[in-house]
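> run fold Phosphoribosyltransferase
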Amino acid sequence: MEYRSVADLGRDVVQWADRLPRDIDIVAGIPRSGLLAANLLALHLHTPLADLEGLLAGRLLGAGQRMRNRSPADVIASARRILVVDDSLHYGGALAEARDKVRGHVLEERISYGVVYAARLDGEQRVDYHHSVVPVPRAFEWNVLHHTHLGQACMDIDGVLCRDPEGSEADGAPYEAFIDDVPPRLVPAREVGWLVTSRLERYRPQTERWLAAHGIRYKELVMHPAGSHEERRAASDHAERKAEVYRRTSAWLFIESDVRQAQRIAEIAGRPVFCTDVRQMVYPGVPVGRPARRLDQVRWRLPREVARNRERASRFGRRLLDGLSRR
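> ok
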């Protein structure tokens, strides 16, 4: 799986800016995540920033100090090129909607379209400018917890949807009160496939009530079968159970809070795990914080090196034979 963090986005936007035309006078973002990329790009290019609908209505979100004496209408009217930006492109729906809004507008001829990451570059993926192709499956730090395909993902509860219990909250009556009263940390925008928790099965009614009360939708709730907290501690199989569900369901991603469990789940399941505590994608066999090598890089690195060595050996052999023939 390909993954890009907010730090990756910032770095890639700077690299992208070096390849963009010099006549971009306004950067406009497609809400919501497109505004994140657009803001970074506008700051780097030192151009005015707008959201798309505001731009078409003659508004800017910010123009910087060098534009402070000019009206938004004047800045927009004098712009040579306006770049409409989204963070990524997959199906092309957001881009198609943006083009529909622009169609027939007085600014249409001066508007170009760009994305930082495209899944491919054909059909609806065609844009004027892009930084790089990032194929699916992929996840981005800024929207992974509300991903379009959460319905095929596994997610922990404590530490992800709410905070972890602390001290005496981790057992008995205090834990029951914790389940009832803890506020949500995250309410996913979409239905989650499998909520996989180390909460005991006996807490299912309370957990289901809490999830319903906060509008958290899911297909299946998987809980720990142990009869007591002591039995669960003795089993010490949190990561193993979560990894088993991950493999059984063929989910594309597991979202876990604890970094040690995330590493263990990834190793057992042989699949990536997004760890919310460190905001990183954890890959099997890869230390936390270090990016996984892309499969195509691994596959083709050796043949290229072999080909180069073979060509060097061939040139050396030809020179050797030529030298012998002259003797």
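DSSP finds eleven helices and 13 strands in the chain.
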